[in-house]
Structure formats: structure tokens, C-alpha cells
Amino acid sequence: MITVDCKDHITHITLNRPAVLNAINPEMHAELQNSFDEFAGDDEQWICIIKGAGERAFSAGSDLKAIAKAGSKRQPYPKNGYAGLIERFDLDKPLIAAVDGVAVGGGFGIALACDLIIATTRSKFGLPEPLIGAVALGGGVHRLARQIGLKQAMGLVLSGESVDAHRAYELGILTELVEPDALESSVDRWCKQILRCAPLAVRASKEAMMKGLDEPSLASAMKAQESYPTFTRMQKSHDRKEGPSAFSEKRQPNWTG
């Protein structure tokens, strides 16, 4: 259902059901939950890239045929929500969605849960759940409104319409828009840029930004930031000393995470 490869501090997770546009069924939910658990718990894995197999889709979201077949016996989502990711609010490591093709419904929800979305020009995005009598409660409606603003999000959600990649970039959904043959090199470039930084500093930065958005004011966010757990851990780490030492000695830092 999925493939996982870990190399050079990067975990690659591929949604691997191209014949059904990488639609997610119960078995896939369980595999993704386990894979994200392993990524979150492994201090040697610093970045996760999520992509879909084939050239047609990142993911079309839930496998509707599997849902229809299960009927009232439909299995609940994993403990961390849709795809084992949507409600993983404490995951402070960088997540990159590499999107090539359709990313709709829960597939779009997965992408929205990532920190960076790098997408090709042939990609499409949307939350079409109302068209099939459903609601995008797997985080989609909430994240979309927070990321692009209420009125634009309402327009997409209430109509069930999808947007092409260029419009998605204009709306601020995407970090970068590339041609299909440049997707892999673009993602590699972003990973190399992130890996230049101290991993705990990256994690503490994400933690501060995400938790800060939940604070009622800028003042409270700035007051709370130094009490966050990853920031506290970073302050006591080898890397906190290694950065200034490497700079003063005019050498590349040796990050240990």
C-alpha cells in the first residue's frame, strides 16, 4: 500500500496505489500510522517527503469503494487521525508534500498538513466532499481556512470545486510550482537547504511557529516560546554550541541532532 525508504536523514513515504489514484483504504491508514510513528520517534530521521506513485495523482483521498463496501462496519481512523498524520499536532520535524497530479479530499488534507508543498504544473487541488454528501473533517476545512483565508477557502469548500496548480500557487497553498520533470530536483534542493541547518533548531522553529499560531496574541506567543519542549531540548544540545564554534573556526558545522 505504501513504500518507505530512509536515507541520509530523510524518510521517503510513497502512497503506492496508482491504479486507484493512490486512494487511501483502511490498510493504508494503518501503514501510514506506523510509518509516521517510526519517523517521529527516530532522531536520525530529520525530514519526511510524502509523494504519490505514478504521474496521475498524489492522492485522490479516501477509497470510496472500500467505504461503500464496509458500510456500517467502516473502521475508524488511526489514533493520529486520517492517514495517521492529520491530528499529529506534536510532530515538529519538517514534512514535505511532493505533489504530481490530483490531490483532492483527504489527499489534499495530507498535503495541507505538510510544512512545504512542492507541486507540478499538472496538479489539481480541492475538497470535493460536499459533492458526495460528505464533509472534509479530516482537517481539510480547518487547515485550508487558516492557510489561505476564510473567503477563498469558503469558495472552494462550499462549491466542491478544484483549482489547478497555478491558481493554488496564487492562493498561497503551494511553496513552489515546478514543471513535472523538475519536481524531484526541487524537493532535493529544499532538503539540502534544510539539512544545512541544525535539526533541533529547525524543529524548534517549526514548533514555535505552529504553537504560536494557537496563542491569542503576538505578545503571548513570544512569552511562551522559550518554554516549548523542543526549544528547551535544543538549548541544552551539542548543536547549540557547535553552531557558534563552527562559525568562529570558519568550518562547516557537524550537526548531531
UniProtKB/TrEMBL annotation:
Signal peptide: none annotated. Pfam families: ECH_1. Residues 224-257 are annotated as: Disordered. The keyword Lyase applies. GO terms for molecular function: lyase activity. Keywords: Lyase. Gene3D superfamilies: 2-enoyl-CoA Hydratase, Chain A, domain 1 (3.90.226.10), Lyase 2-enoyl-coa Hydratase, Chain A, domain 2 (1.10.12.10). Residues 236-257 have a biased composition (Basic and acidic residues). One of its GO terms (biological process) is fatty acid beta-oxidation. The keyword Metal-binding does not apply. Belongs to the enoyl-CoA hydratase/isomerase family. This is Enoyl-CoA hydratase. It comes from marine metagenome.
